[in-house]
Amino acid sequence: MDLSAELKKRIEIAIGREISSSEQGGVDSFLKLSEIDIHEINLLERSSGVLAISYIRFKLRGNVTLSLATSFYSSVIQQGVPAKEWLRGLNGEVSGV
Known about the structure:
The chain is mainly α and 97 residues long. Helices cover 57% and strands 0% of the residues. It has helices at 5-15, 35-47, 49-59, 66-78, 83-89. Helix 2 packs antiparallel against helix 3 (49-59) and helix 3 (49-59) crosses helix 4 (66-78).
């Protein structure tokens, strides 16, 4: 997902660093989001769920739907469900994600 200039600026302010275009699609699965990625998503969540979900979509390679990113955000980030458990709960709908 491409970020608009305004959205990118808001994310950068919230996480306290610049993000480069090379970071776009740098992660190929939800399970491969690093501790730093999760920390930054949590920082964004404190400002805005929209920023957090946009950043999740920006980081993940391929077409991550808004509904899938929102589900991850709601379950894993807000409720603390382990990512592997969240994936199992999707009933194989997105195998390999």
